Amino acid sequence: MEPVNGGTRQWQPITQLINADSADAMALYWLGRALENIGKNPQKAYAKAAKTRSYYGFLAADKLGQAYQLNAESIQPDATVQFIVG
């Protein structure tokens, strides 16, 4: 990939500061952006971020052309909610 937005100097430090094993979608998204801008493959960072239901997860999914992961989970009301509703 060719660097985007001119040069690598401002993006290179980001690739050194953010751990690719991070579970933080925001960090992974920006790692992907930095890799993309220095001409390296951002797919792994974007793919990991895109697995989350978050703003940055959705941005990463857009970069990959993937559907958003909503990760819907059913909730079980606790006793207080059951008392109020029931």
Strand and helix map with partners:
Elements: H1 12-17, H2 25-37, H3 43-49, H4 55-64, H5 79-85
Helix pairs in contact: 2-3, 2-4, 3-4
Task: Produce a short descriptive summary.
The chain is mainly α. The protein is built from 5 helices and no strands.
Structure description:
The protein has one domain (1-69). Helices cover 50% and strands 0% of the residues. The chain has helices spanning 12-17, 25-37, 43-49, 55-64, 79-85. Helix 2 (25-37) runs antiparallel to helix 3, helix 2 packs parallel to helix 4 (55-64) and helix 3 crosses helix 4 (55-64).
Described by the principal axes of the CA atoms, the overall outline is elongated
Percent strand equals: under 5%
Residue share in helix: 40-55%
Q: Residue ranges: pLDDT <50 for 5 or more in a row?
A: none
Which features would summarize this protein structure in a list?
mainly alpha; single chain; 86 residues; elongated
